[in-house]
Amino acid sequence: MNKIKLYEFLRLSEVEQYNTVWSLGVHVDTHIKDNIAINLYVINDFYCEVYYDMKTNKILYKQTFKQGERLDKYLGKINFW
Question: Does residue 1 surpass a pLDDT of 80?
Fold first, then answer.
């Protein structure tokens, strides 16, 4: 599974989604706010933010998106080949 669309990703189980992020995702940036590390990954034509609590050393949740306000804070750091 080298190419995956957002709708296919969302149909996967939670465990399969995280495994896909780790195996196919390319880490773009990390944004830290209130001891929460928000790691941005790009997977083909969509993005996934993984929220990680630095105090408890646990993944909290993830958000997927293609565009919009969530992406705006990263625009200066993303390379669009």
Answer: no
